[in-house]
Amino acid sequence: MLHQRPRILPAAVFLYACLSTVSAAPTGRIFGRITDPSKAVVPGASVTALNEATQNEQSVITDESGNFLFSNVPVGVYTLSAGHAGFKSYRQPGVVLQVDQSVGLNITLQLGETAEAVTVTAAGAQVDTRSGTISEVVTEKQIAELPLNGRNIQQLVSLQAGVQITGRAFFYNANVPQSVSFFSLSGAPGNGTNYILDGGDHNDHWTNISMPTPNPDALQEFSVQTSNFTAEYGSKAGGVVNMVVKSGANAFHGSLFDFLRNYSVNSRSFFALKNDGLKRNQYGGTLGGRIIRDKTFFFGSYQGTNTRTIPTSLTAFVPTAAERAGDLSARAPASDPLNGQPFAGNQIPKSRLDPTMAKFLDQLVPLPNGPNGLLTYGQGSPRDSKEWITRIDHTLTGKDRLFGTYFDQRDRGPNNEHSQAHQESGHALLGFALFRLLRRLARRPRPALAAVCGHRHQNSRPARIEIRWGRHRAVLSQYV
Fold first, then answer.
1. Is residue 48 part of a domain?
2. pTM for the full model?
């Protein structure tokens, strides 16, 4: 008799992988209670939420207390409908649901035939009575209309109460892209904020800060939670920034953009001796729409950034031509490391000079152009960035939905902070040589990328099943 061995371990590994990758979803909740004109609850009523852009709908049945709940609903504008035998149908369009928002709507059904309908066009204030989280949503309109330096949406995080800009000084890392900003939420360290993109982890675990974020034309909105957020977010103590990428709809929509900053039309700082020579060009576009009407939708965006500035003037002390030949007469007396005796005439014999080090100095360290071995040099700072992002949404059935998001950003440019840090630490010669050496060796930057996909199943009752998987990679090396 054959016995099949139970495959417990593979199943356990799969279950752990599914559970470990689930984090906070980029969605909201719609809840409420249905009553009749006498304020008695109406159990067993059917409630439907219809997405006005994609025509995808979800349905639930009120419980014995007349309560209903739509959990993990994608952000957007919805039409809420309700009905029960012996009552007129209820319909309320224009219900706006934002990320991490709980919208409470209490419905009163009027007595009458089901064929009759009551349409509510002006609803009262929507108050969240289910959550004590202190949060604020940065909407699509704010992202599009508020000024942003370099089109970096992370700057809008600082508009919220309890957020303090910390700067890069205490979180320096040569591999951190210039587009990443640093904030302290609710008094936590600058790397104590949890960043989420479409429900997937969006943190650089090498430095515990945010990875590069999508351009403003690609984001639908994002929320900033500063206090009392729920356990589903976890990970960081400071706060949560939950970002949502735009989705496609039945109607096609797109945009083209080109933003230019040029020193020739910029005013010079009052205290600056000359202008900075800044030339920044940011260009790209977006496109979204349907693949299959009411079922499959796509959205994509690209942004390229080219930045040029006038080379900065840096200084370093390097060996003179005489010193490279062993003549140290202009320096303090040097002793022979083999016997401790001073070199005759403070001159190192040529036979004692290392040919490898001489070649290293000749090829990587230029001769001084000032007195006492002073070298003044300019380090150019061209920076280029390319960003792609795409999202696909597909409806399998009325209860099952799939989605996937892919984000990729590649930065290329010299790292001025890197050489400057070496200079300030007293290792200008080594820093300058390493800069020249790494510039020759580093030819291919590693991109920062993030990928998230998920499946969601909604029952008629508030119960739901959701599985999400995400993978991200931070920038490991940049052009230097």
1. yes
2. 0.71
